[in-house]
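new request in #modeling-help
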Amino acid sequence: MVNVGGSRMIHVGDVVAERVFLINRELLKSYANASGDQNPIHQDEAFAKSVGLPDVIAHGMLTMALVAKFVTDWVGGSGAVKEFSARFVKPVIVPAGQEVDLTVSALISEVSDGRVRLDITATSAGVKVLGMSKALVEKK
Amino acid sequence: MLNPDSVGRTFTGAEFVSVTQSQIEEFARVVGETDFSVAPPTFSIRITLAQSQELLSNPDVGLDWTRLVHGDQKFAIHRPIVAGDQLKCSSTIENYKVVAGNEIVTVRSDLHSGSELVVSTWSTLVVRA
């Protein structure tokens, strides 16, 4: 158990409440510029389809960046994340003119010495997009 | 195909990468982060993606970056990146295997500030057959 601010204790098995992020083509463009990843599969529908994708897909690393935001909002700051990992199991498909969901939740899987491990679930349109996603955070 | 002699080799960038406040803010804003005092946890990909591509595009390595798919990603963050950091990237091919004709390569990239290890990242990249 970790004592956070007096009465609120964190236990293994606790659930971190689900949160929905919305992803559209504009966000993909912003992320491309911020990250330097200008791969056209994330911006150009014709190109994406030409390489066998159903449509433009989100950067896997944008998905991870949004999941990281879910984690840092829960823990209370960007500086608290010690480890973060994910497997990209399915793409987040982003059709033109639409907003698609990235739905994130987590389960507390380990609590020790002020550190908390979260097992994260991330889906889009009901499909699991990240596998084996875990974060280790310092919770003071 | 990857040159098997590349596995275990470390390639270190010649140049330092300077982290600016505006880079941190641009990255943070995309995910709705309003605290710009430190970089968000995955910010380092901005540095390691480009740096490791450059280092591993060495013809001796033989990695075909045009057919790469990102399989998984891990970060070990020893301290958050902040504006003013001057980081040097070194990338190592830690693991390599061929499964059903697909090449699966694990690249570790370490970002150092002087002798201090700031962030380590592991990217598994799949070169599709």
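bot summary: The first helix of chain A runs from residue 25 to 35.
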